[in-house]
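Late entry, pyridoxal-5'-phosphate complex.
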Amino acid sequence: MSDFRELLTYSAKRVADYREMVPERPVFPSVDLDAAGEKFGLLQDESVPAMAVIEELVELVEPMLVGTTGPRYFGFVTGGALEGATAADVLATGWDQNGFNAIMSPAAAVIEDVAGNWIKELLGLPDGASFGFVTGGQGANTVSLAAARHFVLANSGWDVEKKGLFGAPRVRVVVTGERHGTIDMALRILGFGSEVIEPVLADSQGAIDIGNLARVLQNGPQGPTIVCLQAGNVNTGAFDDFVSAIPLAHQYNAWVHIDGAFGLWAAVNPRKRHLLEGIEQADSWATDGHKWLNVPYDSGYAFCAHPEAHRKAMSYSAAYLKGQGEDGFRTPGDFVLETSRRARGFATWAALRQLGRTGLAELVEGCCNLARRFAEQLADIDGVSILNEVVLNQVLVRFGDDHKTDRVIEAVQKSGECWMGATTWQGQRAMRISVSNWRTTDADVDRSVRAIISALATLDL
Ligand SMILES: Cc1ncc(COP(=O)(O)O)c(C=O)c1O
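Prediction complete; structure with ligand written out below:
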């Protein structure tokens, strides 16, 4: 066996061993962050054989890994990287294709085209929508809002790509306080600044208040406008009312963007699809692969109903790139920020191919059922309350008061049995449970509830 073959075989084995072990390892490792770096030693002059490097890497890093691919990690919104998608991503690394255009890699360009169209079909987005494979929700929101910026300013006679924002007509950005922070970040990067936001009220679950949206749109200074809606609030999982909000925003010629980092995937399940009624009328959509689709990091998608605006906002050319976008075949790099980039289409295609429509619908439904199982069992415990309507895969749990809630969360995290994060929801501290991993079962929820009960028992002593 060549050294390289041996190296890859060894690495693949270690990945497989890790994945098999992960359900029984502590979900969160015990790491002294200040001391841990020392174990990696100082930068040396001598070279080291690749196999020795990889053995050392595994030995040093494995004890520090967080069990996000395991079935009892419920922090943030975290997918568990499907087997097919993981292997495809390993191949993507091995093949090392540049996903910029079809000249750099026909394989990467073609598979991205196929997978992007499959996602549109699954989510019920318009056939003609353009798409970009990006790093995640942040990338997808930023690319979508760059297209929005182009479109609304072009409609006001302003070429923002040439002239920038100095002297441009003022763009209104209308969005609730329940937006994800990546919207603010995108607005900062795009030169709007977060203070441009005209806030709209949200209801008790974090969904947009339609009456207030109407008032904000009407009362503010009329002009180029972007309205950001949300499919899946990061705390509660709530959805905005797209049927009412999108036509209303369009009356003001607004570009409507939907941040659906995880919530858009509910569209694949017949029992949840109603939550997304009307989304096809929007102008752009952002979602993630590495959350509910269970594609490995990093993976997200930006879709746009106006391909020309999308392309004009994101593409460029150069003498050495002659032919870019002119060969008739979609150029992946025209729809994202990066030039040279990982071939993300392989892993996404593999996830969609492995699951199929049925498997994906079952994944979504399974996670929602497990979230409800959590809520029902926890609600039965004295002094424990569920703060949200569990419409999706998110559950907010409160243990009496702020202090006790934080202590329970800390004790559960330390137990190693499962991992849930903390949040503040409408002024109250809460445990935040997100069920987004294909591996989680009823037994994992039950075991996690037992871990919460024992944490509570220890605190009550
Ligand atoms: C609604 C929403 N938008 C955007 C993001 C950011 O996604 P990413 O971490 O992939 O950038 C998240 C992350 O949880 C989210 O829930």
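The domain at 88-350 is CATH 3.40.640.10 (Aspartate Aminotransferase; domain 2). Will revisit in the morning.
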